[in-house]
Design a protein that fits this description.
Elements (H helix, E strand, L loop, with lengths): L7 E2 L15 H4 L1 E2 L9 E6 L14 H7 L7 E2 L4 E2 L5 E7 L6 H18 L4 E6 L3 H13 L5 E6 L8 H4 L6 H7 L8 E6 L6 H9 L3 E4 H7 L1 H15 L2 E7 L21 H13 L3 E7 L11 H24 L1
Parallel strand pairs: 2-6, 3-6, 3-7, 7-12, 8-9, 8-11, 9-10, 11-12
Antiparallel strand pairs: 1-6, 4-5
Helix pairs in contact: 3-4, 4-6, 8-9, 9-10, 10-11
């Protein structure tokens, strides 16, 4: 399959399986140049963290994400699902500018638009990178489908509505950028995972003014994280044409996520995130998902947070398979 976008490059590091397949993830995922028909899901990396408000090595995650594939089977034991029948292609990484953040953001927008144009029916999955990349990807989708309304489901400890006039197009501003630009309406945004002392009153007031639907971890646990996600996805599906899911890994409690610079006490447990992603994967209106703000340079020696990140993505893939079977 030919993809003509000058900013998408083969990753610096990828597996080259040899011999008989043994059922692991690195043998399942194909390079996009090798697939003969449009894949059901396309992953691509946005290795950018220069736009992070705090020091971050999140740009390193796409490479580590791929390296860890060899440690995961493409079989979900709990759900008894073999993922290998679901076609997934790796489109590589977007080439980032060495010093120009705005140019890197532009390239993410262009590459996302090109992927959607070339593979309109494929689910896109962007591996970040910091959270600034989300606004770029959504702009790319909007430019390719200007007449379709976009909803956002955000799993996050933070609202990410800081003022770009003060912080620039940084990782704390993507949601506000999209609202202020008129790309997404505030009432089409849902944030699940807020808690504690990590959003100032002025940011909360901005969210209320623009009718962002917000749920604290306390509220989510009262309903059940997966159930609340399902309810909000069903509501969004009735109001918008397509849904973009962004998973900021700082939604996890700090005890689970040493490799997330902005992780905090009181966040989600891994099993809550995993169950939530299973539910997200089932919804056909979810056309794009990203995983952002995971920093391998901060992780433990055994790469526990990066492993959680790969597991999280595989849960979404399992949900994709379940949803596909239910609709057939």
């Amino acid at each position: 399959m030919d993809l003509t976008d000058k900013w998408l490059r083969e990753p610096n590091w990828s597996w080259n399986p040899s011999g008989e397949p043994s059922g692991y993830v690195h043998e399942w995922i194909q390079k996009i140049q090798e697939v003969k028909s449009p894949p059901e899901c396309i992953i691509y990396g946005a290795p950018l963290s220069k736009s992070s408000i705090s020091v971050s090595g999140a740009s390193l995650y796409p490479e580590v994400f791929r390296k860890l594939w060899k440690q995961f089977a493409a079989y979900n034991f709990e759900e008894e699902i073999d993922l290998t029948s679901y076609t997934v292609a790796d489109a590589g990484d977007i080439l980032m500018h060495t010093t120009d953040v705005a140019e890197s953001h532009r390239r993410i927008e262009i590459a996302t638009s090109a992927l959607k144009r070339t593979f309109p029916k494929s689910t896109l999955c962007m591996i970040g990178g910091d959270h600034s990349t989300t606004a770029c990807a959504i702009r790319g989708l909007r430019s390719e489908q200007p007449n379709r309304t976009i909803g956002i489901l955000q799993l996050d400890t933070h609202l990410d509505v800081r003022n770009p006039a003060e912080y620039g197009p940084a990782n704390g501003t993507p949601i506000r950028q999209l609202i202020d630009e008129g790309v997404v309406r505030g009432n089409h945004i849902v944030n699940i995972g807020l808690h504690g002392y990590y959003n100032t009153k002025s940011l909360v007031e901005y969210a209320k003014k623009h009718h962002i639907r917000t749920y604290s971890m306390k509220e989510a646990r009262k309903t059940g994280v997966a159930m609340l996600i399902e309810q909000e996805l069903m509501r969004l599906s009735s109001e918008v044409d397509l849904i973009y899911v962004t998973v900021d890994m700082d939604v996890l409690d700090i005890s689970f996520a040493p490799g997330v610079p902005a992780a905090t006490p009181g966040g989600m447990r891994t099993e809550e995130l995993f169950e939530g992603l299973l539910s997200i994967g089932k919804f056909k209106d979810v056309s794009h998902i990203d995983f952002v703000c995971l920093d391998p340079s901060r992780d433990s020696r055994i790469e526990e947070t990066c492993r959680i990140g790969v597991h999280a993505w595989l849960q979404f893939m399992t949900g994709r398979m379940i949803g596909k079977r239910e609709r057939e």
